[in-house]
Write a structure and sequence with these properties.
Elements: E1 4-15, H1 16-24, E2 32-40, E3 43-50, E4 63-74, E5 112-123, H2 124-127, E6 128-129, H3 134-145, E7 152-159, E8 162-169, E9 172-173
Antiparallel strand pairs: 1-5, 1-7, 2-3, 3-4, 4-5, 4-6, 7-8, 8-9
InterPro entries: DUF7110 (IPR055534)
Pfam family, one: DUF7110
Length: 202
């Protein structure tokens, strides 16, 4: 039986370094032998390599596409005394608290660094492209979604002839159901269901 991805919407974000680490030891679907990762300026493309020779080398296989952006990440202090940033003595080098009172007005800048993030954001045509091996690459995207601390992935797919709803929020699978709310053939003026809108997944 064939499988198909009907609709998909993603707002997933994860550090670019984590994407590369994931694919170093990823448990890929049997249809995919490997992936090829290409970066073109601020665009990251993860392309499927077919496990079998029944796909022509001229046939474009499914690929995941992400934009690469820089986000400032604030680092947590390794150790900070409960008495405050100046320790139990009050001020720097153990000086009395009143001596450091004037210095408290100067806000201590938190340590931070710029981290590159891969942002898989958009609908199916934007995030998951090409038809060959599309469903196996959708499964790869779902695995990546489980690694994301930020973002949502919703989709309507079919597998073995059955419709399925997928919803992953901030790295956790959530319950999802399909609801038939309107027959688009009965809708006047062509105002039927917008299958790009995943409000049918709850």
């Amino acid at each position: 039986m064939t499988s198909h991805v009907y609709t998909l919407h993603s707002t997933l974000e994860l550090p670019l370094e984590d994407v590369f680490e994931y694919f170093e030891d990823a448990d890929l679907p049997v249809e995919i032998a490997d992936v090829e990762i290409t970066r073109r300026n601020n665009t990251l493309i993860v392309s499927a390599v077919a496990a079998e020779d029944n796909i022509s080398k001229y046939t474009p296989t499914a690929q995941l596409k992400a934009s690469v952006t820089e986000n400032r990440v604030y680092l947590d202090e390794d150790e900070e005394d409960e008495a405050g940033p100046f320790g139990a003595g009050g001020g720097p080098s153990g000086t009395p608290q009143w001596a450091a009172f004037g210095q408290q007005e100067e806000q201590v800048e938190r340590p931070s660094e710029l981290v590159e993030y891969a942002c898989f954001k958009g609908d199916r045509e934007t995030v998951l492209q090409n038809t060959a091996l599309q469903y196996p690459m959708f499964e790869v995207l779902c695995d990546l979604a489980l690694e994301c601390e930020k973002g949502t992935l919703t989709a309507i797919t079919s597998r073995d002839g059955e419709l399925q709803a997928t919803r992953i929020v901030n790295g956790e699978e959530r319950a999802a159901t399909l609801k038939v709310v309107e027959d688009p053939r009965d809708a006047p003026n062509g105002n039927g269901i917008n299958w790009r809108d995943n409000k049918f997944i709850s």
